[in-house]
Amino acid sequence: MLDRRVNAAVLLACMVSSATAFVPSASNHPVRRQQQQEHGVRSTTTIFAPLQAASIETPPSPLTAWGDRISDIRKLQQEVKKQIIPEFGIELSAADVGIASDDTQAQLKYFQENAMEIKQKMQDHGAVVLRGFDLMKTQEGFQEFYNALGMKVCQDPLQSVSARPTADGKKDSPVYEAVNKESRKNFFIGMHNEFVGTRAPRAAAFVCFKAADTGGEFLIADGRRMFRDLDPDLVEELYQRNIRYSVMELPFFGWIDNFPEPIQGPIMAGIKGLVTAAINAKVDFDVEMLWGESGYDNTKMLQARAPKQPPIVVHPVTGEPTWFCNVHSHSSKLRKDRESIYGAERFEDGASQINKSDMFFGDDGNLSDEQLQHMDEVTMKNVRFVKMTEGDVVLLDNYKCMHGRNVFDGTRKHAVAWFEGWEGEEEMKKQNAKVEALAA
Q1: What is the pLDDT of residues 28-74, one digit of tens each?
Q2: Cα–Cα distances in Å, from 124 out to 118, 146, 185, 222, 317?
Q3: Keywords for this entry (predicted)?
Q4: Which of 43, 81, 234, 339 has the most CB atoms around its CB within 10 Å?
Q5: How many Å separate Cα 374 from the centre of its chain?
Q6: Is pTM, for the whole model, over 0.85?
Q7: Long-range contacts of 344-351 (CB under 8 A, 24+ apart)
């Protein structure tokens, strides 16, 4: 029994160490536990070099801009149903603007001279799909492209997670791989906005350096239309109760069942305390550890749950209500349902086993199968499959546009850059404020 307890203690120490390797590090964040309801995007100055893909010091992803609390969510949804929402995800090609696909200098000049117009299109339409620009076929050209637009690059919100490699393999590169692993090819990445805890980039640019042989489409969906189309009763319940994610599972505690039942409780309490302290020392938001059983093999596990948050936010620039909820990607039930179509997930390392997620009401209540099914149906109704070829870029507003990825075969190399904002964003806010004042 003594040897067993020693082995258990060693195993626990290893798991605590492993667990903290897969959560965002506080070393990049000088202020711990920023208030969730903080409004506005954190302002960080970035060097703008439109003609160079120069290496710069990349700031952290900004704090999530939740916006003001909506007093009557049902009434607001009814108002949105009566509005005409702009076309989503418009396309812009080199041919459309009279530039040859191989004239990269003319393309760079076009992006410099039309930067505000393109960013306004992103705001109005949620996303812009750019095609036929050879400039973005290389990482250097891709960086020249977004610098020319005046996009302010930031770190990936999962900066400290080793599972997110950079596209060129360089540690400080601002361009990250976009889930190209062959081991993940049959994993359908559900629709989501990019955010971790209290941090979310304002925008992103996804680029294709090599398309998969088959499949691998980049998926986008309009958060405004999601909010409009969901069942009003469900919208109100979700908004009033808030939502909460489990962000990590530690499914390694089946060995506790080998101990006599009277001492299992104290052991579990001690483990929970140790793991909670270790993880909360590493992240800039509060994480609560709860005991449960793994949905895959019923093994005793600890589940890390993030603080509750609203599923609908007020857009930080336009003030529009938009669906900002990752149930489609995070729900364990919806992932299991997709496994029946695409095959089971392939867990080839510890990170894959730990990085499991699920979603609950903010009071830890479970969503019903019917509610999850409805959200899945509304999501897929609004999903657009974008087949990208080399050099294609999707520039998107992370608050208005959800993204995902289809299953694929063959070698796929897509990448992404995240942005804390862009030059001219404050001017856009002022213009929207003037329009609202005139309409009032």
Answers
A1: 333 343 433 333 333 333 333 333 444 457 899 999 999 999 999 99
A2: 10, 18, 33, 11, 11
A3: Dioxygenase, Oxidoreductase, Signal
A4: 234
A5: 21
A6: no
A7: 345/186, 345/187, 346/183, 346/184, 346/186, 346/187, 348/183, 350/18, 351/22, 351/161, 351/162, 351/163
Q: Which domains does the chain possess?
A: 2-25+59-439 (3.60.130.10)
Token code pair at residue 419: 């942005």
Give per-residue pLDDT as tens, 273-296. 998 888 877 777 788 888 887 655
Question: What's the rounded Cα separation, in Å, for the pair 202 and 212?
Answer: 28
**Placement of tokens 């020392």 in the chain:** 281
What secondary structure, in 3-state letters, does the chain show?
Answer: CHHHHHHHHHHHHHHHHHHHCCCCCHHHCCCCCCCCCCCCCCCCCCCCCCCCCCCCCCCCCCECCCCCCCCCHHHHHHHHHHCCCCCCCEEEECHHHCCCCCCHHHHHHHHHHCHHHHHHHHHHHCEEEEECCHHHHCHHHHHHHHHHHCEEEECCCCCCCCCCCECCCCCCCCCEECCCCHHHCCCCEEEECCCECCECCCEEEEEEEECCCEECCEEEEEHHHHHHHCCHHHHHHHHHHCEEEEEEEECCCHHHHHCCHHHHHHHHHHHHHHHHHHHHCCCCCCCEEEEEECCCCCCEEEEEECCCECCEEECCCCCCEEECCCHHHHCHHHHHHHHHHHCCCCCCCHHHHHCCCEEEECCCCCCCHHHHHHHHHHHHHHEEEECCCCCCEEEEECCCEEEEECCEECCCEEEEEEEEEECCHHHHHHHHHHHHHHHC
Tokens of 312: 């609908």
